[in-house]
Every structure is written in C-alpha cells, then in structure tokens.
Amino acid sequence: MVIQSKSLVSTSPGPDPVTSIAEERANATFDPVDMHAVIEGSPEKAQKILELYQSLERDPILAPGYHDYELSRDENREQTTARIARMTQYVENEPYEDFWRRLNLMTVYDPSLGIRISVNLGLFINCIRGNGTEAQYNYWCVEKESRHMKQLWGCFGMTELGHGSNAAGVETTATFDEKSDEFIINTPHIGATKWWIGGAAHSATHVVAYARLIIKGKDYGVKTFVVPLRDARHQLMPGVAIGDIGSKMGREGVDNGWIQFSKVRIPRFFMLQKFCKVDRSGKVDLPPLEQLSYISLLQGRVGMASDSYRICARFITIATRYAVGRRQFKSDQREDEKEETQLINYPLHQRRIMPYLALTYAMGLGTDRLERQHAETVKTLDDAVAKKNEKAIYAALANTKSLFVDSAALKSTLTWLAEQCITETRQACGGSGYSAYSGFGKSYADWVVQCTWEGDNNVLGMSAGRTLIKNIQTILEKDIKIKGSTAYLSDAKEYLNRKYYLKREEQLTAIEALRALEVLIVRVAAAAAEKQEKLESWDAVSYERVLLSKLHAHHYLLETLFLATRKAQKPEIAYVLSKVTKLYLLTNVLEAFARDFVSYAVVKPQLSLAISSKLVPESCLEVRGQAVPLVDSFQQPDGFLNSAIGVYDGNMYENYFKVVKTHNDPTKTKAPYSLDLEDMLNRGSIQSRARFENDIEASKKLSS
Amino acid sequence: MVIQSKSLVSTSPGPDPVTSIAEERANATFDPVDMHAVIEGSPEKAQKILELYQSLERDPILAPGYHDYELSRDENREQTTARIARMTQYVENEPYEDFWRRLNLMTVYDPSLGIRISVNLGLFINCIRGNGTEAQYNYWCVEKESRHMKQLWGCFGMTELGHGSNAAGVETTATFDEKSDEFIINTPHIGATKWWIGGAAHSATHVVAYARLIIKGKDYGVKTFVVPLRDARHQLMPGVAIGDIGSKMGREGVDNGWIQFSKVRIPRFFMLQKFCKVDRSGKVDLPPLEQLSYISLLQGRVGMASDSYRICARFITIATRYAVGRRQFKSDQREDEKEETQLINYPLHQRRIMPYLALTYAMGLGTDRLERQHAETVKTLDDAVAKKNEKAIYAALANTKSLFVDSAALKSTLTWLAEQCITETRQACGGSGYSAYSGFGKSYADWVVQCTWEGDNNVLGMSAGRTLIKNIQTILEKDIKIKGSTAYLSDAKEYLNRKYYLKREEQLTAIEALRALEVLIVRVAAAAAEKQEKLESWDAVSYERVLLSKLHAHHYLLETLFLATRKAQKPEIAYVLSKVTKLYLLTNVLEAFARDFVSYAVVKPQLSLAISSKLVPESCLEVRGQAVPLVDSFQQPDGFLNSAIGVYDGNMYENYFKVVKTHNDPTKTKAPYSLDLEDMLNRGSIQSRARFENDIEASKKLSS
C-alpha cells in the first residue's frame, strides 16, 4: 500500500477525473472560441458576452456563489435587493443594450433578480411605451427616471386570482367619474384581486393596472392605468391593500404580491391613452390599431426562448464534464480498459445527454436569429409609426404576424425542452445532481414557471398552431402562396398529393429532414383543418395545434442550424456542426415525433426503427468524440456555472468535497437539535414513562 | 351593482367553485367508499388507512400544515426530529405492520421523515437481519432496542463519493488484523468517502458499512460491518470523521452526511456473518447463497412503487378539483353557457390530466399486488430458511427472480411516471401550481431523488430488461416455457411468426391490448436479443432494455387493472373501472409507445392515428364525467393533501387567500430590507454620487 500526499493524503490511488477531461481537450478538432462566435451569431457578440462574464465574476455583489443555494426566503430577497441596487449603477452607466445583455446573462443564475428588474424595466415601462402617449412615457419613465430604476418602481398588474391566461377577462374596474374627472379603480370581489404581481409586495411604488374601462355603465373592455401604490415615504396609498403572496416553488427572491383596490381614485390622465382616449366628458375614442399594444409583450417571449438556450448550455456543460470524469462499472464494450468505464462511454448515457447537447446548439443559433428578427420587426414598425405612414405600418404588421407565431412556438417549445433538459441532465449526474451545490435543484425550481407565465405554454402553442391550420385552410381553399415564416406551407398541395416517403438511411440529410418536417406539418395541419371544419370547433383540435406549434419550432431551429453549417467558414467548424445537426434531426425531430412521421407516411416504419436502433447510437458516438470541446464552446466560466461538479478542470470530487466542507462546518459535530435526538434515544421504558400504571402490581391494586 | 356580504363583501358576483364541485358529486354513479376498497385491495386495508389518516390529522406533531412549505433547512430538520420522537411512541405501541403503513402514508407529505426512519428501521436493520446471524440481529436490534428507534440509531453506509450504482466497487477497506482479532476500517482516498449517508450527519450512533474484506492481502469483495460512529455521549468515535453533506434539491429534513474512517478498529464479530464467516485465524468461509442477502433491499423498491401511487393520487386529486373549480376563456364547444368554461371541459385539459387519473388507478391496484407478492415471497423464503429445507429455498428463490424483475421494472417506471405526473398536474394548475401552498413545489423537489437512489432507474430498468431478453433467448433457443411473471414470453414463437395486427377500433379491449403489449414486448426483446448476440454486448442494447422494462411494468399494471375490473362485485364499480382501464390502455400504453406499436407492426398506422385523434379524446370525456368521484375515491383528506387549492369542498380561492394571509402577515407593509430599497430609489444623481468630479467645472480645473 503506497501512501502519498498530493492535495490530500491517499493510501491508494483515488479517482482522477482531471486527466480524463484533459484527454478530451487534447483530442479537440476545433477551437471552442471559433465555435462560440458561431453559436452567438458573431465574434463581436461573443466577445461582449465574455466581457460581461468577466465583469460579473469579479463583482462582489453580482457574482454568484454556492451560498446562493442555501438562502432562506428573507435572505434571498435581501440579496436580490442588494443586487438590484448594484444594477442601478450599471443601468445609468452602460449602453442599454449591454445592460440588457448583462441582465439576461445574470438571469441564468439569478432568475429572481432577472424577473424583478424585467417586470419594472420590461413589462411596466414597455406597457407605458406601448399603450401611453409620448408625453405619458416621457413623464413616467424619463422625467420620473423610472427607466433608470430610480424614484419610481413599477409593477405589472395584469393577472388576477381568477384570471391569468384570459387577460381580456380581468374584472378589476376603472369607472369614470365625470364629476371629478377621475377614474375609480376597484376590486369587486376576491377573484379580481391582482395576484402574483412581481414587485408588488415590497418594492413597487406604481402599478400599470389592467382594468375594465366603465363609462356611464358601459364596459369598454380592458385598458391600462397607472395607479400609485405607495407614497414617497413608501407607505401604502389609501384604499390600496397589498400583501406578500408568500412562499413559492422557486424564485423566492421575488416579492410577488396581491393587490386589492377599494375605490382608489386616480386622475383621468393616469389612463394610458396612445390608442384608446377618454375626453373630459367621458367620450371614448377607440383605436383602429390597438393590436399594436400587444407587441410590447413579445420581448418577454423572445427573452424566454433565449433563456432556454443559456440554461441548457449551463446544464449540458455540467453533465458532460461529469460524464467524462465519472467512472462506474465496466462496459462490456471496453473490457481492455483497466479502470471502470467513464459514463460518457456508455451508449445509454450518450443517448441520454448527447441529444440535449445537439438541441442546445440548435437553440443557441435559433434564438440568436429570433432576437435579430424581433429587433428588426420592432424597428421597422417603430419607424413606420414615427413617420405616421399607415401603409408602412400595415406592411410592418405582416412581419409581426410571423413574429407572433415564431415567438409563441419557440417560447413554449423551448421552455418545455429546457425543463426536460434540466431534469435529464440532473438525473445523468446521479446522486451528485441532487446536491444543491451542483446547481440543478434551485435552477429547476426557478425555471419551470417559464412554462406558465407570460403566455402559458399550452395557450401559446394553441395560438401558434391555430395560425398554421388557418394558413393551410387559406392555401388549400384559395390556392394562394403565403409569406413569412410559415411560407413553407405554400407547398401544401404538393405535399398532400404527392407520395413522399423517406425510406433509406442516405436520405437523412438536413435538407431532406427539413422537407420531411414540412410534409409532416402540412399533413397534420390538413387533417386538423378537416377535423376543425367538421366539428366546427377549434377546441376539438387543440392537441393537434400544440403538436403543430412544436413541429414549427423545430422547423425554425433545424433551418437555422442547417444554414449556419453551410455558412461556417472554417471547415473543421462546419464538419462538427454537420455532425451536431445530424444528431439534432435524428433525435429531437425524427425520433421525438417518430409516431407521427410513421403514421402520416412520411418515414417508413423500418427506417424509423433503424433510426432508433442504429443511427441514433452511431450519431451519439460521433458527437461524443467532441463533446467536451462542444460544451467548452458555450464559454460559460466556472463562476457562472456555479456547480461544484461542473468545473472546467474536471477536478470534481475534490472541489465538491471542499464546497461541502466550506458551507457546512465539520467542527460542529452535533446538530442544534442534538439534545432532542439524544433524549429520544435514551428514553426510559414504556413502563416507566407510563408511571408503571399498566403493570401487574397496579392491575392488582386496581382490581382488588 | 349589488353589494353583498357573505364570507367576504363583494360588489359583483365572484367565482363560485364550490357549486361546480358539488354538481360533479351530484352526478356520481358510484360510491367512492366502495371504490376505495377496490383500489386498496380490500375493505379492511381501506379502513385501516382511513383510521391512520384520522390519527395523523389530529396529531399535533405529525399532522402536516402549510408552514411545512416555509421551513428553513434547520427548522426542517428540527421538525423532522420532533416527528421522529413522536413516531417512537407509535413504534412501541402499535403492530409493526400498522406502524409501517403509518410511515408510508406520512412519507407522502413528509418524505424526509419517511426516509430518516426507513434508513434506520429499513436499511440498517434489514441489512443486519439479511446479512447477520440470528445472534447478531438479536444483539443489535432486539437487545439494544434499535428496532424501536431506541439506544442506537443506525445508518446505511453503502454509497461512496466515487461509487453509487456500482456497490460492488466500493473502496472502503476492512482489513483483518489477526493479532488483535479486529477489523481495521479505512477510507483510503477521497473517492471512498461514504457519501449521502442518511442520518449520519447528526443522528446515527452506528453504521452498517459496506467495505472490502481484506485478509492477508487478499480482497474477498464487499461485505458488511457494524461500525460505531458516536459514543454514548453522542460524541464522534476516534478515527471517525463525519460532516453534514449540506443543502439538497429537496428532503432538507434529512441529515445526510459523509463519513471517513481513518484506521478505525472494530471487533471481528462486528462483521455480519450469516453467510460469509471469518474465523479467529482469518480463514474465510464463503457462502453458497449470498444472493439471499440482497433480497432485503427489495422492500425499499416495493415501497417506492407504492409511494408513486400515493403521490400521484394526491396531485391528481388537487389538479382535478382545480380543473373543475377554475373557469377560463370560453370554449367554442360551450357557447350556450353563461360563464367562462371550466378547465376540465376543454379537450386539451382532459387530455393533460385524465390519463394520469387512469394511471393512478393502475398504480394503486398494481402496487397493492406488488406489496402482496413481496410479502408472500419473503414469507415463503423465510419459512424455507427457518426449516433449513434447501429444496424449498431454491424453489422460493425462483419466486424471488420474478420479484426482482417486477420490483425493478415497477420502481423505475412508476417513480419516473410520478415525476411526470407531478410536473404535468402542477402545470395544469397554472400559476397556482407554482405557489408553495398548493403543495407541488416541495413534493417535486422531495420526490425526484426516488428516480436515483436505491437502484438508479436506468440501472434497474436495464437489469429488468436484460432478464426479459435472456428469457426470450432461452425460449427461442431451447424451445421451453418459462414460469413467473414473465411467463407470457413463452408464446414468443407464435408472436414472432404469426401476423398480429390491431386494425380496428373494436379490437381495443383490455384483453386485446394486453395481448398486443405481449406481442410488442416479444418483438422488441427478440430484436434486441439478435442485436446483443451480433454485437456481443449488453451495453449495446441498453436503450432496448430500459424500453422493455417500461413495457413489462405496464403489462403488470394493465393485467392487474383488467383482473380487478372483472372481479369487481358492484356493477357500477365495474362499469367505471372498465372506462378507466380503457383510458389507461389507450393513453399510457398504446399512445405512449405508439411508435413502437406501429413500427413493430402490432398496430396499424391508421388505427394509431385514430387512437390519437378520436379514441383518446372520447375516452377522456367518458372518464371526465366521473372525475371528481374518481379522485374522491383515493380518500385523501384535506389535512393530508395539504393543498390550498385542492380542498374537498372546492372553495379554493377563499381558502388559498386565507392561507396566504395567515402565513404572510399583511400588517407588515414594509419588508425588513425596505430601507435599502427606498435608499436605492431615492439616491442622488450620478454627478452628486461622483462628488461632481466628472463635471465641466472639474474638467476645467483639471485641464488648466
């Protein structure tokens, strides 16, 4: 037995994950820095992101740490508040675009911070910009400095206890009082209580309240009103009742609150009046373009799609490094090796995590495209509106339709997939994945609300799917081509009439898979259209609508991935990207929707079985060879990953143990409740505890 | 506007979920009490469970409450300790079987408590019983009273930092010192640190340590040793280093710890020696029946399968009641209704939750069967061993093989399905599902470790699947019939050679679905067998092995459900059970594995599409009609569900609001950190904060 001292004293050789990781890097066929630029869309954006990572990992208040995984609710909120205060300095000092990128990156490790600021700067201010006049925006956001998180803190009062998804159904009332030229904001019953309002419990000074405009007994539908909640001393305004909504599954750093208004009076001009206007006499001027007001909500959806990419990148990085460093059992395919087999060399393990690696690439490229599409669409529309060019406005609105479909499909599909990715990568790290210090637990709990808020995933999916079905109906009935992101539906007739069947392995190229996906979408949509017409119900085809939304999202991603591969300048990058694309299309597309591909006669059953039993394992193995450089390419540093088992150098056991010991003082060998435990173990007999009342002697006395 | 005062003052009518729930109950076609007896296997067991619920909901310490969702780690552990202390009174006073039933029920709402006690009374004591001599069991468990959670507290030292699933690979050593007649327990390096050991951090006085038996330089493999960790004053023994493993994703009430042994000496007879014996001179007597020692681990697996049923019952009850009480939007299928549409009346919502309702029935009946199978198998074996009847022992071992396959397949498949069920039912409750007070968040975080521990699901699935493939190989090569729970494989040749094709809707009866499932299993297993033989690797068919394990689990459940329906005495029970069975087989079986059914030519593609687009919606609708009585039949009382939105009377809004206000004092209108917030909002200008050093005046001065 050789005793040796390195970082620790060992009496026999222990595991050596560091060497395993180093070997992987030695075999890299490409430079992760090059790949990073491809994933992020440009070298400039990639560099900006790294600069921000550096700034964040150094910042004493903004930098994440393992202690973040141990905070109580109160501590969490305190920390978030300190981080917000720190962020106000950045919002005043760096370009707005950089500030948002910083916030988006921080959202990966501190989603509570992300949403607290996003509700204020995103929802609250976007709502004023989208629904208010220029003067109203200037007053509330510029003059009052709320856009710099100063003086005012705004929250977003849409959801009620009784109404979430159906925002048009909210029941808070804003009744015009002609006498005083005021609106009276009122919560008529418990169901209309504003609920879940982020920032309301403790932070907000103002809310944009969604309320029914009532004038002379007539209900004009839901409009938006700026309502002060707290005065300059941060005391609740009269008539305003607010409380903390309490503990949540995650995001404990957010002070979500409930709000009840009891006949709260606000001046008429606190109503946001870009579109709908109410004059002094209560006359209502209803807008022709009120739909424009909803575009401001799209930023959130686009952001959540991007969040999905970054959170997947984080956890697939951790799980891949763990799979390389961790050895367990001996594979019967590696009997020549001395040591136990690395998890990543098991076919099943590859099949569990490699598809998520490929998916993350598709997400990265796809959401970069979505971000650009969003920026362009908004800019075109803003320009047209600024020029008051009605024709240009309507032209721009056509683009927003594509953006609605794409962002709805991608937000819902990607947030769901990210939920699955966190779950599967956590399980792939075994027990270590259950430790708070690996990062999975908190992130999962924080993440999953993304599937519910700002458009419940099923509601969004149904909405995107409905558009696809309507497009198909238009194409088939009117025989016209359509434009925008669903233009591929225009070939519907051909796809329906001509036999299209993938039969052979050689056909499984990216371009053919894209085509196959289009054929499937057309066939599902056409069948759904028929069913919808027959049953005269859209609800009857809701399942098909969500399915179509998912397929459309994958079409968007696959198309982007395919184009990026073709555009890649370095051959070694193009080569590995083509392998990633292949894996993505085999697993996330052809295998995930295999039943539909087979049943709608797009893929032959035999080929589908071959995909599962032969092609997927082969493709996983191909990507596995470059797995470490592929995750290194996400360029997320240790301080950002914040995972004891996911460190860059692979030294996971020593690092994990050190974190455990640092955060749980081993010199305290007894728990604070140890006396209770000891007392319990050392308790007397049942008889003595019953004061011997049940003994034979007592029995004798009692019966005598 | 009518103002009225009921429980609260409303200025217009609010939501009325209570009436909605009452209407559902009025339409019940059967008595939930009858159904409860069917699900639990007998009226006696059903009654026992209700008595235990009553005892628990009254017990001041054991009863759950909403405060449970807000505990810090320290508070959680303190509460768990208090509950353990309370449970010691029950373990001394009620029949052991009742005590375990009580503990299993409590595990649904307090899994930390469940596992803390299970590690001690289950793993620790079962390990001594399974591996130790009768004298050893009597000494450690009876004389020392550990079976009553007294004097000693045992933990289970199998897992190490470097070895989890591969228990045979643990690296802790137990070296025999002939001179002193002792074993020296040693942790040679960091990888051999005992890790995750439940109860080690603070509670345990002893551990059964899995360590390599080393005698005269020879490694005899992993054996078990009782090692004292703490002395009678609860101080750590010399050479024993223990620490808290820290924060986890869930189960924060458990004091998981790490243990390192530095040459810790124990007497030779602390080694458990039922099978493997070491005499005074170091001679080793190796056992012929060491495999018997693993049977004691099966109790945990059976328990986790049962846990899956009860946790699904809890959340499907909550989600179903919520879906009845919650109204949102207006379905285009219910335009005649005045109010918005109840979630449960949307086809998509039915499709999201009804399949889990059917699954829960299948789980309930299936795990009751598994519990009985386990009890019988253990009893038969124990009897044979007691009689030292070797022939009877070998006969009993054949039964244990079935139990190994069934419990592995059911533990892995059902814990995974339960994970999905909690996720989907939570999402089906929208934002309310994210509130801690609805119960989903804590339960999810507590639950998911079930997929990892006591046999990682993929490892267990591979194990069960391997047996199925081996069985098929035996059947096909040797042309013999097999017995036990995989007897249905005996028809393999017929299933492979004869064409078997479900084409028509009328064929989709339970008995035909069971047959179809058998045909699919046979075909998947045969294809996997061929691949395994060709590639000479079991790892190459790991994906197929896990698939087979899942299919076998569903076969077990479907068979049980089918038989229970046939056996049901009351016609109204049989009728509704047949509907539940139909929904289960359509969704959880035929749709969940649709690709395989179609590609292996068991179900026609057209029929598969019809299942999805027509039969599943129809079947969901049928079950939806009795959804509330069906979940009432689980008979879980409000105090046990512990969900603000899942209460029996359906009064979810008022109840939820009351819970929020009770647990978050609204009179505290400012947060403890409010001054930081106010200071941030009311900060001075950038210029003033920079002491005007960047102003023009300063610039002039500095440049002059």
Automatic annotation (TrEMBL), chains A, B:
<dbReference type="InterPro" id="IPR036250">
    <property type="entry name" value="AcylCo_DH-like_C"/>
</dbReference>
<dbReference type="InterPro" id="IPR009100">
    <property type="entry name" value="AcylCoA_DH/oxidase_NM_dom_sf"/>
</dbReference>
<dbReference type="InterPro" id="IPR037069">
    <property type="entry name" value="AcylCoA_DH/ox_N_sf"/>
</dbReference>
<comment type="pathway">
    <text>Lipid metabolism; peroxisomal fatty acid beta-oxidation.</text>
</comment>
<feature type="binding site">
    <location>
        <position position="159"/>
    </location>
    <ligand>
        <name>FAD</name>
    </ligand>
</feature>
<feature type="domain" description="Acyl-CoA oxidase/dehydrogenase middle">
    <location>
        <begin position="155"/>
        <end position="264"/>
    </location>
</feature>
<dbReference type="Pfam" id="PF02770">
    <property type="entry name" value="Acyl-CoA_dh_M"/>
</dbReference>
<dbReference type="Pfam" id="PF14749">
    <property type="entry name" value="Acyl-CoA_ox_N"/>
</dbReference>
<dbReference type="GO" id="GO:0005504">
    <property type="term" value="F:fatty acid binding"/>
</dbReference>
<dbReference type="Pfam" id="PF22924">
    <property type="entry name" value="ACOX_C_alpha1"/>
</dbReference>
<dbReference type="GO" id="GO:0071949">
    <property type="term" value="F:FAD binding"/>
</dbReference>
<keyword id="KW-0274">FAD</keyword>
<keyword id="KW-0285">Flavoprotein</keyword>
<keyword id="KW-0576">Peroxisome</keyword>
<feature type="domain" description="Acyl-CoA oxidase C-terminal">
    <location>
        <begin position="513"/>
        <end position="682"/>
    </location>
</feature>
<dbReference type="GO" id="GO:0033540">
    <property type="term" value="P:fatty acid beta-oxidation using acyl-CoA oxidase"/>
</dbReference>
<dbReference type="GO" id="GO:0005777">
    <property type="term" value="C:peroxisome"/>
</dbReference>
<feature type="domain" description="Acyl-CoA oxidase C-alpha1">
    <location>
        <begin position="294"/>
        <end position="469"/>
    </location>
</feature>
<dbReference type="Pfam" id="PF01756">
    <property type="entry name" value="ACOX"/>
</dbReference>
<dbReference type="InterPro" id="IPR006091">
    <property type="entry name" value="Acyl-CoA_Oxase/DH_mid-dom"/>
</dbReference>
<dbReference type="InterPro" id="IPR055060">
    <property type="entry name" value="ACOX_C_alpha1"/>
</dbReference>
<keyword id="KW-0443">Lipid metabolism</keyword>
<dbReference type="GO" id="GO:0003997">
    <property type="term" value="F:acyl-CoA oxidase activity"/>
</dbReference>
<comment type="similarity">
    <text>Belongs to the acyl-CoA oxidase family.</text>
</comment>
<keyword id="KW-0276">Fatty acid metabolism</keyword>
<feature type="binding site">
    <location>
        <position position="198"/>
    </location>
    <ligand>
        <name>FAD</name>
    </ligand>
</feature>
<dbReference type="GO" id="GO:0055088">
    <property type="term" value="P:lipid homeostasis"/>
</dbReference>
<keyword id="KW-0560">Oxidoreductase</keyword>
<dbReference type="InterPro" id="IPR002655">
    <property type="entry name" value="Acyl-CoA_oxidase_C"/>
</dbReference>
<feature type="domain" description="Acyl-coenzyme A oxidase N-terminal">
    <location>
        <begin position="32"/>
        <end position="145"/>
    </location>
</feature>
<dbReference type="InterPro" id="IPR012258">
    <property type="entry name" value="Acyl-CoA_oxidase"/>
</dbReference>
<dbReference type="InterPro" id="IPR029320">
    <property type="entry name" value="Acyl-CoA_ox_N"/>
</dbReference>
<protein>
    <recommendedName>
        <fullName>Acyl-coenzyme A oxidase</fullName>
    </recommendedName>
</protein>
<feature type="active site" description="Proton acceptor">
    <location>
        <position position="454"/>
    </location>
</feature>
<dbReference type="InterPro" id="IPR046373">
    <property type="entry name" value="Acyl-CoA_Oxase/DH_mid-dom_sf"/>
</dbReference>
